[in-house]
Amino acid sequence: MPSGALPPKKASPYVANVNRNKARQMSPRSVVLGALGVIGTLWMLFRLFGSSSTPKSAPKSVPGMGGSAYAKTVIVTVLDEKADADGPIADFVKQNRIDYAKKHGYATFFPSANNYTIKHGSSSWAKVPALRHAMTLFPEATYFFNLDPHTLIMNPTLSIETHILAKQRLESLMVTDVPIVPPDSVIKTFAGLKGDRVDFVITQDREGLSEKSFIIRNGDWAHFFLDAWFDPLYRTYNFQRAERHALEHIVQWHGTILAKLALVPQNIMNSYHEKQATAANDNGIYKPGDFIVNFGDCNQKAKGRNCENEMRPYYARSVQADL
């Protein structure tokens, strides 16, 4: 066909559209909006995954919660009104912890055992959910110090960091290669454990681990450990000493727990009152200057004991030591 017979070329409408799209993409408005979008995305990612030294808002205050919500150490004592119904010990037990906490910048938490529904087992199990509860109220805390209501802090000058938890100090204290349950348990405490790898610090008496006084480091491992300890299987197993024997069981059968445990001498944080002498280790009887005195089962009237009568004179001494 002669070239003059070809129809004239027409500009493609798609080219114009592409050009218009390019112009639209390069407009100042688009650049600004795109930049804002990138900044917004980065901000969202930072908020979701970035770390922060403080939570977005302070935890809500609940009964029994004292001290700064951002304290790095929290003392937890579960009060059992039923067990101590005849002895008004709660007031001076709480004051003992509060005075000590103020001195060192710690916080306190005094939940009631009645706050927790223990479907299986005695109220003594309440310390375990109470610690989980404390971790939700003080999410920024590093350490939680469980103290039984039948114990008193006798040397308030000692901080738990310098007295126990500092890496070199803890490594010098750790009792290694000894049976978890004396005298002949085949499972023994680890040797060579580094202080900064420890998440659980506890003492031992002649019978085994003493759960009346222990320190746990906040974190995923602590959540796992407390959940494992509180498992319904153990609460329904009818251990003779309830949560104490359950603790010994999981420490011996779960290497992931034993590998985080540091055993320290009894007089470091759990000295026994003289009426508990038969259960105490050689270094475990309270003497002046010790950090803690533990009165054990002082609420057993059948054995002629009375918590208020035994504890109040020691509380008076602890107040004098704080002056």
Automatic annotation (TrEMBL):
Coiled coil: none annotated. Keywords: Glycosyltransferase, Membrane, Transferase, Transmembrane, Transmembrane helix. The keyword Repeat does not apply. One of its GO terms (molecular function) is alpha-1,6-mannosyltransferase activity. The chain crosses the membrane at residues 30-50. GO terms for biological process: protein N-linked glycosylation. GO terms for cellular component: mannan polymerase complex. The keyword Membrane applies. InterPro entries: Glyco_trans_34, Nucleotide-diphossugar_trans. It comes from the Eukaryota. It holds the Pfam family Glyco_transf_34. Belongs to the glycosyltransferase 34 family. This is Alpha-1,2 galactosyltransferase.
